[in-house]
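Lecture 7 notes: from sequence to structure.
We start with the chain below.
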Amino acid sequence: MNDLLNDFTGVVRKAVDEYRMILPGDRVAVGVSGGKDSMLLLAALAHLKSYYPAPFELEAVTVELGFEGMDFAPVAAFCKELGVPYTCRKTDIKEVVFDVRQEDNPCSLCAKMRRGALNGILKERGLNKLALGHHFDDAVETFMMSLLFEGRLSCFRPVTYLDRSGVTQIRPLVYAGEQKIRNVCAALDLPVVENPCPMDKTSKRHEIKRLLAAMGADYPDMKSKIFGAMQRLPLPGWEPVR
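Predicted structure tokens for the same chain:
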């Protein structure tokens, strides 16, 4: 086993353990967008499954948004190599959001429709947990977006039960930084699928990302302190069980 993946899986296991993300008998789906985060998450959970003391099943699911030029055949081949069942569902989300509705805030509707499609697949497959690729930097950025744009202290939770769908969302990458993910993904040569969404790098999240990068030049440990504060407050759902 590649030492790099083994070490990274240790970071994932720390989050899984401290937030009790996976229990014996869980049937876990990885939401695979094709990006670096979800691809590395898939590889790490497939490795974790081979030795984790709580036995669980693992599948991968993709919701195709309808953008041209996105080829998920390499993802399917990678899943076959890992021995992970793969479901890829074509949708018209891009057409609805950008062409029909012409939304002023397309990200919100796109996310809602994507969640609905994912939950539908999980129900069909009998899967009870959905692993998402949100990482350490995503958490800090979401917290700062909430603070600066909404005037409140809030963030997604590492573990969230959705009572309407009966699905529990887990985020095993919350201890993994974006740069580390990028480096490991490139070193492992994972089959990343680029997303041509026109909203990329134009969102409020990208503004916050740039702000944090600028402030981080003077305060290198700033993100770690923000993340630590989220756990120590603690924000609802953010206190590690340990």
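Points to note: The chain has one domain: 3-232. The first helix runs from residue 3 to 18.
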